[in-house]
Amino acid sequence: METASSDRPVRYSQKKFFHRKKFCRFCTDSNLKIDYKYPAILNNFVTERGKIMPRRITGNCSKHQRELAIAIKRARAIAIMPFVTAEGR
Length: 89
Hints:
The protein is built from four helices and no strands. The protein has helices spanning 25-28, 39-42, 55-58, 62-77.
């Protein structure tokens, strides 16, 4: 490594990863509704082990993330969605 005038190693700039802005699907598409009766929509926000995905991964706004969590929990309680998958046990 080369040294600077203060005898510290020079660091070369590394390529930075470009982060794409995440957006809330429910804010952009007003036809898409959060409802516990639609497990096809809710399954997009649950991992393969059955956990609810966080906002930072899904890109939902806080309002819709709260509604989504309530809808998933309701669907689980009335057996529309499983709490865990068969592989998750």
